Amino acid sequence: QPALSNKSRKKKKKRKTKKSAAEETLEDNDLENIDNLLEKIEDTNGLSQETQSGIIADSRPLLYVEHRNLNPENELKRYFGARAVLGDQRPRQRQRQNVRGTWLTTPDNSWPRYTSTGITMQLLETRRGVQYFTFEHHRKYQQVQLLFLKNIESMDPNSVVPLLQALEPYHVDSLLLLSDAYRMQEDQEMARELVEQALYSLECSFHPLFSLTSGTCRLDYRRPENRSFFLALFKHMMLLEKRGCPRTALEFCKLILSLDPENDPLCVLLLIDFLALRAREYTFLTRMFQEWESHRNLSQLPNFAFSVPLAYFFLSQQEERSELELSQAREKAAQLIQLALIMFPSVLMPLLDHCSVQPDARVASHSFFGLSAQISQPPALNQLTSLYVVRTHSLWKDPAVMAWLETNVNEVLHMVDAQDPLVEDSEHKRKIRYQSAPRNIYRHIILSEIKEAMAALPPEVTSQPVMGFDPLPPLDSIISYTRPERTNHPSNESTLSLFFRSLLPNFNLQGDMRHDGDEEAGAGHDLNQGVNSLMAAMRDMLANIQFLEPPRDDNPEGDGEWD
């Protein structure tokens, strides 16, 4: 009997081991099935209804944000599979150190222990179903913030690091400033981690009624305490786009726009079309144009004027749609792209140049799309067209897109030669409008760091210092506590010098420049020396960053996973 019992035990053990291996394969299959299910849900895009144009639109609010789309791992798993993204990490492994669950970021165990930072959020009022919130700095955080501003104005960049080491490891503005410094050194991973820490700190301060998904919660950018949240979201969105997660970046863009859709302080309307096209969310872009054109005049922005017909063209190539929907999309695409070419003729030639496409003789020799169209356009329009061409030219390189564009360019030239009244009316509108851009567009250009657009900024913007943690603050700011005034630097500095100064305020690119006419070579040497000194100072600063965690009482017996 003992021998038989031992054999039976061995058989049971073998069955258990076989069962565990089978369970592992089932878990892997479940992960893949979940990914496939998410892709199907993504394709159907939720509950939908037919519209007059025949294009299916989402029945939820336009700026509705889904929690699952805020996690870049979900998008990466759709591209590469769950095993490639997660590896040996357990999908639902809980964090012991940063125990608070968040939606915007996933806290890492290597981050400093989170404690109360002195930032809270208050509900100011509720009007017509819209809730207005604001962040508030308590006395503790105010002291750290004033010390941060004092150190920035004292031209000592190394003084920012002690704030994170000893006083406040989750000081938001310091984290954003150091993130820019790491990004300048092409350390995208560390730059992203610092921005995520800033977002984690702010999300832990949310009011219980503040919702990321409803689209009815507002923050006033005029309050300095709220700007850090806007800027952290924007920087995180740009890093996600560079990381290859356009769908997640689009969701963050919708979140930023929902916080203040009327004023749009960071002017994400200049970017949302690009993210929608990259994420292949063509229905969202066309729906936004249909719903907002009447009260926001989106067609007066070059990016919407060209991106919306491109979205209709991509919809017309989807074979799973009915023939009626395809014909309607083709007709709409042709109509809108011709209007865009008539309204903004200066976009065509730079767009073809960036796509390395040589126009035919008729287009190249015609004055409507020639060099005069670019020279005669107002400066504000030049900034908008430069932004769009540099940002989205890669989407136009497809041969089918180029063939479609060529057909419509020839149609527009027929209208121009026939002296269509629409051509003259559009030229009149261009001369009246776009004389000067609002402050939020300048702010967007500075944050986007597209050199072609920054070169077109007016002197009143380039002559003032631009701080990376608060670029071009609103002129009607609502100040809740006294802040030191910023030091006015000489107005003859270049945009590059001012940008470097925003990261390292003691940097002086022109201080040691030679002004003698016969020493141009020496001036070039001084320029290189100044840039090298900047990078050397930055390397010293980044090399000395060490986060000191406060002592904690760990339970040596409680290292297992939480139930």
UniProtKB/TrEMBL annotation:
One of its GO terms (cellular component) is RQC complex. Residues 7-19 have a biased composition (Basic residues). It comes from the Eukaryota. InterPro entries: TCF25/Rqc1 (IPR006994), TPR-like_helical_dom_sf (IPR011990). Pfam families: Tcf25. Residues 1-32 are annotated as: Disordered. This is TCF25 factor. It comes from Centropus unirufus.
